[in-house]
Amino acid sequence: MTTTQSEPTTTALAARFPRDFAFGAATASYQIEGAARADGRGVSIWDTFAQVPGKVLGQQNGDVAVDHYHRFAEDVAIMADLGLTSYRFSIAWPRIIPEGTGAVEQRGLDFYRRLLQTVREAGIEPVATLYHWDLPQPLQDRGGWANRDTVAAFTRYAEVAHGELGDLVDTWMTINEPWCAAFLGYGYGVHAPGLTDPRAALRAAHHLLLAHGRAVQTMRAQDRAHRYGIVPNLYGVVTGDSGDPEADRRAADTADVLQNRLWLDATLLGTYPEEVVALQERFGAADAVHHGDLEVIAQPLDVLGVNYYSQHHVIGTEPVPATEPEQAGQEHVEQLPPPHPRTAMGWSIEPHGLRDLLIRLKREWPVPPIMITENGAAFDDELIDGAVHDHDRRDYLSSHIEAVAEAVEAGVDVRGYFAWSLLDNYEWAFGYDKRFGIVHVDYATQARTIKDSGHWYRDLTTAHRAHHAGT
Ligand code: IFM
User: Fold this and answer.
1) pLDDT for the residue 1
2) How far is CA 189 from the centre of its chain?
């Protein structure tokens, strides 16, 4: 369905992007694949975590998800219909090395080979992510990311996946959203493996970064022609007004350090911010950082993936003893309620935050070319008479893509944009309750229906092609 209303918008918007700019969509293995016991797949920490009462809404899990494992051909046909030029997906480590270390499962590799061949035959360029949170459970049983041995296990997994599938994928991302993996998983207890241990969270953060660096070294030694990067989730941090500007500034700095600078300084500068070093010392995690680690972490990158959804608004408070796990190290930071409008996740909708973030990245760090590897929104969609009129999502996407255009015009080297997500899927602790897809999935029948936002996105990709046709 093409609305006449959206035509002028998409035409004008598409014309602001260079010819080679990629318009894609993103997914992640555990959120879409299902087939949790198929073809020798091992158990991941999310299989385990989802069974713990009270951790995931309705104790839902990814056993079936949207059955992409069996329906990938239909899903790739939808991508082609939407005119996507690129597709970001993730590889499930437990499908490739079910125990985390040891035997390689050929059937897992075969699945990704079939998927990638289908994607490429459709004229779509794949972007692979090695780790989107599905750590093999046997590794977690030995401490998971809090244990330095997981770095070596990940490096081998990267070597196997890249060695076997590298002929089909040119762009490789190591770790998706290390902040979530470390802090939500090991510090705040709301993601797998569900620990509330600041020391483990800081160790995990360091080991995730080290695993990224080692994997890039190893993959680059296999093939220098490919592109390698990492995907932090970055936020704008807005300083609120408590009446004490100095306290507010300190609070904003802390939020910015943990959310943004930790990952960017380490990977792009080879340093940790002073505040991170102080937290590592305070919580007994400093011994995780060995001499030479930061040089490994700061491998030259060919691409930086940026996941952007929203901004944080914070003020300073009198430090009080932490009562909630997420306050550890942030006892003087108060998160303000996000301003309206908000998405169904309660996140504020602030597209200018994306533009400002991109401009800041160029100003403050030696960034390689950037891809917006995730951006999107959950809303309370309704499928009525075969249609989903998700105009709030369409507006979210268009305003954020416009923000990217402004950053490009301001001189930031952005090469692509991936809507999160292609399909409605398993939204982690929220189960299937929150829908992010530009394609609706009926979880009872697995029927796919392109939402109005998806139709709009197709108009944009069509307009982009038309604008550059013959150039
Ligand atoms: O669904 C997640 C995704 O797995 C990682 N980035 C944020 C998305 C929305 O919460």
Assistant:
1) 41
2) 19
Domain range list for the chain = 4-467
3 state DSSP class of 151: helix
User: For ligand 1, which residues put their CB under 6 angstroms from it?
Assistant: 28, 31, 177, 307, 374, 420, 427, 436
Enumerate the active-site residues. 177, 374
In the numeric block, the tokens 């802090």 are attached to 183
Find all residues with CB under 8 Å of 160, minimum gap 6, and list them. 96, 97, 104
Please give the distance, rounded to the nearest whole angstrom, from the Cα atom of residue 234 to the centre of ligand 1. 12
Fold classified for 4-467? TIM Barrel (3.20.20)
Rounded to whole angstroms, the Cα distance separating 37 from 18 reads 43
Residue 466's contacts (CB-CB under 8 Å, 6 or more residues apart) are 11, 14
CB 129 within 8 A of CB 186: no
Give the Å distance between the CA of 246 and the centre of ligand 1.
33
Q: Residue 343 Cα, ligand 1 centroid: separation in angstroms?
A: 13
For the stretch 4-17, what's the b/e string if a residue is b when 16 or more beta carbons lie within 10 angstroms of its beta carbon?
eebeebbbebbebb
Q: Is 399 exposed, middle or buried (0-12, 13-18, 19+ CB in 10 A)?
A: middle
Distance of alpha carbon 145 from alpha carbon 122, whole angstroms: 37
Going by alpha carbons, the residue nearest to atom 4 of ligand 1 is 28
pLDDT of residue 326: 85
DSSP H/E element including 87: strand 86-90
Tokens read off for 89 = 């997906």
pLDDT at 179: 98
pLDDT tens for each residue of 101-116: 999 999 999 999 999 9
CB atoms within 10 A of CB 253: 18
Q: How far is the CA of 375 from the centre of ligand 1 (A)?
A: 9
Q: Residue 107 contacts by C-beta under 8 Å, 6 or more apart in sequence?
A: 39, 40, 95
Long-range contacts of 342-346 (CB under 8 A, 24+ apart): 343/310, 343/377, 343/378, 343/379, 343/392, 343/396, 344/377, 344/378, 344/379, 344/380, 344/434, 344/435, 345/309, 345/377, 345/378, 345/430, 345/434
The minimum-distance atom of ligand 1 relative to the CA of 421 is 1
| Ligand 1: residue whose CA is nearest its atom 10 | 427
Which of the four pLDDT bands, split at 50, 70 and 90, describes residue 325? confident
